[in-house]
Amino acid sequence: MQERTSVNNPQIKAIGKLQQKKYREESGYYLIEGFHLVEEALKASVKYREILATEAALSRLAQLGLAYDEGKLIKISQSVASHLSSTKNSQDIFMTVKINMTVKINRPKHFAFSYGKWVLLDDLADPGNVGTIIRTADAAGFDGVILSNKTVDLYNPKVQRSMQGSQFHLNLIKADLPDAIASLKAADIPVYASLLDPAAKQLGDFAPVAQVALIIGNEAHGVSPEIEALADEKLYIPIKGRAESLNAAVAAGIMIYHFS
Q1: What is the largest CA-CA distance in the chain?
Q2: Of 209, 222, 211, which is closest to residue 252 (Cα–Cα)?
Q3: pLDDT of residue 105
Q4: How far apart are alpha carbons 97 and 121 in whole angstroms?
Q5: Cβ pair 23, 96 in contact under 8 A
Q6: Which of 52, 57, 131, 242 has the smallest count of CB within 10 Å of its CB?
Q7: Distance (Å, rounded) from C-alpha 200 to C-alpha 252?
Q8: Helical H runs in the chain?
Q9: How many structural domains is the chain composed of?
Q10: Where is the RNA 2-O ribose methyltransferase substrate binding domain (predicted)?
Q11: Do 222 and 121 fall into the same domain?
């Protein structure tokens, strides 16, 4: 087993840089942290480069009874664990995971819609919202989430923590939304856009359907006019109190479970 005790070690420096989008894109790997995420990754048999953990964390990992490559284990010091951590209360275990979100809608040989339930994220900016929506879609049994090119990076540490491992259970696709919507429609999957517009059809007017694609708009600006124009239907969640609007992730959750 390899051991790394210094934060100045070149390998540790390179892994630490994975907290930044630029280096994630350059290396093709991202960093996950914590026993739950590492456990979910191992259960899903994802491709990974190394597992880094303190001696105490390695002992706990061994007790979980999971299959992993011992040749990829690296024992690290507490100082290295603190250096790599993006949380206040680290569990001192990390994994570098291969990025596999390379699917583009205009490459049907890699992926083609045929059936199912999907969520489309139109330029969402808040990492917590994106992660929560993906986790909710997973819990409701949806098939996947499509992220627009301007939606916050899926591999942002805050998104990772919010997803809680759901990224290993769903199809996650980054694509131009007009292309995605065209592909969904070609597969006879209806596309509904969520709008803050009382003139739109109310959510209760829609019956649950076997397949659907739900568009969730940007937190500040909502669904863009270009994307709204492509939707088959526009729907509105009634506001019964005095709040001006719903949080994007909450609104998404209501719609996701309505159609689940």
Answers
A1: 63
A2: 222
A3: 45
A4: 23
A5: no
A6: 242
A7: 16
A8: 10-16, 21-27, 35-43, 55-63, 78-84, 127-139, 157-163, 177-186, 225-228, 248-258
A9: 2
A10: 31-103
A11: yes
The answer to whether residues 210 and 122 belong to one domain is yes
Domain around 8: 2-98
Residue with tokens 């989430």: 145
**Average of pLDDT values for 156-164?**
93
CATH classification at residue 197: 3.40.1280.10
Length of the chain equals: 260
Torsion-angle region of 65 (φ positive above 0: left; ψ -120 to 50: alpha; else: beta): left
- pLDDT band of 109, cuts 50, 70, 90: very low
Token pair listed for 79 = 């100082």
Which of 66, 98, 130 is at the close of a domain? 98
- pTM for this entry: 0.90
For residue 183, which amino acid is it?
Answer: S
Euclidean distance between CA atoms 147 and 154, whole angstroms: 8
Concatenating the DSSP letter of every residue in 118-177 gives: EEEEES---HHHHHHHHHHHHHTT--EEEE-TTSPPTT-HHHHHHHTTGGGTSEEEE--H
Look at strands 233-236 and 191-194 and give their pairing.
Answer: parallel
- Quote the tokens at residue 122: 């139109």
